[in-house]
Amino acid sequence: MPHYTGINHLAMVTGDMDGTIRFWRDLLGMRLVAGLGRPGYRHYFLEISEQDMIAFFEWPDVQQLEERDHGFPVKGKVAFDHISFGVASDDDLWEIKDKLEAADFWCSEVVDHGFIHSIYAFDPNNIPIEFSAPVRGVDLRKTPIMADSDPSVEARKGAEMQPGVWPAVIHPTPADERDVYEGEGRKVVEALRERNEE
């Protein structure tokens, strides 16, 4: 079974990289840790935590999303509702809420969800975002719970991986055939090496 360490990065899209950086880096305090680009294309990464990042592609013809409330059903094609960023405490929620409102961004009241307290807002691209603080004594990761009165068939089987659902790997890729192909991010490593050589 793979050992997951978190979200390496969420890949979002913007038509205004500078406005996006000012919001995520300068207002919310997430460090800009990498940037790739050439005319007509940018891909920048901001640090959420030691394990997690949010990244933005900037494409010239991108149109801003229409504002849509978090968690409300929609019709048609959809794959994404909102991102929730974990914070350590309610004090962090209030600090973020105050910063957002001082910068004239809408922010909800603090909502008590029982296991987390949350605030909701939108970034400059109208990406719906949430910030969530844990409630003391409630840890769903340690004690999963299903409170749905009519859970789906698969949810009724519990929190743990169910054996036999998918075919077993019969022929794993041999170590000498595990080719890794060069990608765009190699430029970041080259730039880092050049900086270290100076």
Specify the CATH homologous superfamily of one domain.
2,3-Dihydroxybiphenyl 1,2-Dioxygenase, domain 1
CATH hierarchy, class of one domain:
Alpha Beta
In sequence order, what are the helices and strands, one letter per element? EHEEEEHEEEH
- Amount of beta strand: 15-25%
Strands, count:
8
Measured distance between first and last alpha carbons: 42 Å
Please tally the helical runs, counting DSSP H or I stretches of 4 or more residues: 3
Shape: globular
- Please compute the radius of gyration using only Cα atoms: 20 Å
User: Which strand order spans the largest sheet, edge to edge or round the barrel?
Assistant: 1-4-3-2
Average the pLDDT over all residues and give the rounded result. 90
Question: What does this 3D model show about the protein?
Answer:
Among the domains are: 56 residues, 2,3-Dihydroxybiphenyl 1,2-Dioxygenase, domain 1 (Roll), CATH 3.10.180; 62 residues, 2,3-Dihydroxybiphenyl 1,2-Dioxygenase, domain 1 (Roll), CATH 3.10.180.10. 18% of the residues lie in helices and 23% in strands. It is built from three helices and eight strands; from the N terminus they run E-H-E-E-E-E-H-E-E-E-H. A four-stranded mixed beta sheet has the order 1-4-3-2, with helices on one face. Strands 5-8-7-6 form a four-stranded mixed beta sheet, with helices on one face. It is globular. The mean pLDDT is 90.
What is the gist of this entry?
The chain has 198 residues and is of the alpha/beta class. The protein contains 3 helices and 8 strands. The protein has helices spanning 17-27, 90-102, 186-197; strands at 9-14, 32-38, 41-47, 53-58, 83-86, 111-112, 116-122, 128-134.
